Amino acid sequence: MDYSKLPYYALFLSLFIIAQSLSMWGQYVTLPYKSLTMWEAYKMAIPFAWLDWIFMTLTVMVGHKYDLVTPTQDTFLLIIIQFCLILIINQYYLKENVYQSDIIAFFIILFGFFVSFFHLVSKSLNIPIPKHLGYENPDQASASIKSLRYNVVTKSKGDVIFADIKEAEPEFEEM
Fold first, then answer.
1. pLDDT tens for each residue of 160-171
2. pTM score, whole prediction
């Protein structure tokens, strides 16, 4: 693990927890109110969704910029954090019981995250860990040939030879 990325991991996790806290609170805030209309519930929940969107956008930007986690690990982290928040909201806001099976399920999910994050199975079985496209340049990770050509034309000085721009995957032409 690259310890120079530790502050970025802390920022990433902080933003992730804030975003998911807002999301989960927005989903649960209306539950105790039995006589709300759909519009009233919407008005209560939508600000949380907007704030979640803002914080999650920042989270994803930090994660991709500093190459912290893969999309699968993002999903695992989302599940873990939402699971913890649901247990907390159920216990303290909705006054529901948390059962032993809930805690066991949490540790199973947490174990899955660690297997993914540290590539435990791949390393133990000597399976090569594939490199993801775009690690060298995140701007080109999901770029189409058209956007790559546009970037070359707009950001380079002089003549551009389009034949030098290679395509990673075949692109379907728009009709």
1. 565 555 555 555
2. 0.64
